[in-house]
């Protein structure tokens, strides 16, 4: 399996800082946004994003299982949430690693909307727009990418390469 560098650690850091600044500005002065990471891929991005923000945040995670094999989606995402999640009147931000077909993000969004947050925003590090199957609102995007399989910075192929501090393309 060969890996071709896509974005360096420094490029990612700079972009995450810009996204953090944009997120900071979205909410009222007294808001403490609640960041909800989509496991597992989103955890590295979320950890850097929340530390780059300059206001207090709280954090939780959901887990969506949609990948049967290494690189193809099953198309029926299953959502698992933590039992304590109370979102009423919170400014909620869904933090995703990559939006591909859009099915995962839309599943999470529809579920969280039933919990009556004050607002619901979406931020994704990567947007693979050419693969989209459903239209899902994305408020902030780190980088737009093509139809390639990307690993590193939390993203995996068969659970491998999440630990890389940069993003690379896997040659298929
Ligand atoms: P979607 O439901 O098709 O939008 O898929 C979203 C999820 O699939 C992401 O949260 C990732 O976990 C995974 N995924 C999609 N494309 C890639 C990729 O290029 N590399 C690693 N994971 C990916
Ligand atoms: Mg994911």
Into which percentage range does the β-strand content fall? Answer: 25-35%
Under CATH, the topology is which?
A: Rossmann fold
State the low-pLDDT regions, or none: none
Bound molecules: inosinic acid, magnesium ion
Number of helices: 3
Short précis:
Helix content is 23%, strand content 35%. With 172 residues, it is of the alpha/beta class. The site of inosinic acid has 21 residues, from strand 3, strand 4, strand 5, helix 3 and strand 8.
Q: Main attributes?
A:
single chain, 172 residues, alpha/beta, Rossmann fold, 6-stranded mixed beta sheet, 3-stranded antiparallel beta sheet, globular, binds inosinic acid, binds magnesium ion
């Amino acid at each position: 399996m060969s890996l071709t560098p896509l974005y360096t650690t420094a490029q990612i850091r700079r972009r995450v800082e810009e996204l953090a600044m944009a997120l900071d500005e979205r909410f009222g002065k007294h808001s403490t946004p609640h960041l909800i990471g989509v496991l597992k891929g989103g955890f590295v991005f979320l950890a850097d994003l929340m530390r780059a923000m300059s206001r207090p945040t709280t954090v939780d995670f959901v887990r969506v299982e949609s990948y049967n094999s290494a690189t193809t989606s099953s198309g029926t995402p299953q959502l698992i949430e933590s039992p304590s999640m109370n979102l009423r009147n919170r400014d909620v931000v869904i933090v995703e690693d990559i939006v591909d077909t859009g099915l995962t993000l839309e599943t999470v969004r529809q579920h969280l909307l039933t919990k009556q947050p004050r607002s619901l925003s979406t931020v994704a590090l990567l947007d693979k727009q050419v693969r989209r199957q459903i239209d899902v609102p994305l408020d902030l995007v780190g980088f737009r990418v093509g139809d390639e399989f990307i690993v590193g910075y939390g993203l995996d192929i068969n659970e491998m390469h999440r630990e890389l501090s940069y993003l690379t393309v896997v040659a298929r």
